[in-house]
């Protein structure tokens, strides 16, 4: 009897396991991407940084130096013992596309947002201090104009100017020191700065996306203008400068995150 009881118990246990395996198999067949979903959920819980670049537009029809540099950034960055996922996103040069991108980016609650655009007149990387809410007169790539050349902001209404809450001067100072050697021109005795602080983000989509993001959180947002490729920096040099800028932004926002 003892042996028979043991066998019945084992058979009962085996039946339960077999039943659960069948249920699991049926469930996974219905949801073949279940593990992908699990890993995606896990990744969304990690601290995120979003960096955007723009697509082609008039004057830069074939290639946009901003998106080329952003694409060379790594998929993650570690700073002060914290790992951040670095998400790159290309934004079409259209007002509607910017509106959608800004909304989606900030809904995901990123730790930092860095927008990057190209400037045909820049001789180094310009780190922008502010954005203006006026004079958006140019049509976008879709031929659309911004009504009344301005926009009504959810948080700040029709404020004329929004300023970045990060210490842009400090970012520029540190990055210029770090990148001093990597951007030096081989055929020139004149030192080349990697970055410069700027108050002229412009009145096109660069200024528009910065304004919209500053309205969301001015302490976790920055806009950077890069020069055209090889004028004077290669794409890899520009990407390295962007990386160093992101590092300094993290240094500034980290104390607030710990409070």
The percent range for helix content is: 40-55%
User: In the CATH hierarchy, what is the architecture at level 2?
Assistant: 3-Layer(aba) Sandwich
Q: Strand order within the widest sheet? A: 2-3-1-4-9-5-8
The biggest beta sheet is recorded as: 7 strands, mixed
Instruction: Specify Rg, calculated over alpha carbons.
Output: 25 Å
Under CATH, the topology can be stated as: Aminopeptidase
- The general outline is globular
Pfam family, one: Peptidase_C15
Family: Belongs to the peptidase C15 family.
GO biological process, one term: proteolysis
InterPro entries: Peptidase_C15, Peptidase_C15-like, Peptidase_C15-like_sf
What does this protein structure show overall?
With 259 residues, the protein is an alpha/beta fold. The chain contains 7 helices and 9 strands, in the order ααβαββαββββαβαβα. The chain has a 7-stranded mixed sheet, with helices on both faces. Strands 6-7 form a two-stranded antiparallel sheet. A hairpin with a 2-residue loop joins strand 2 and strand 3.
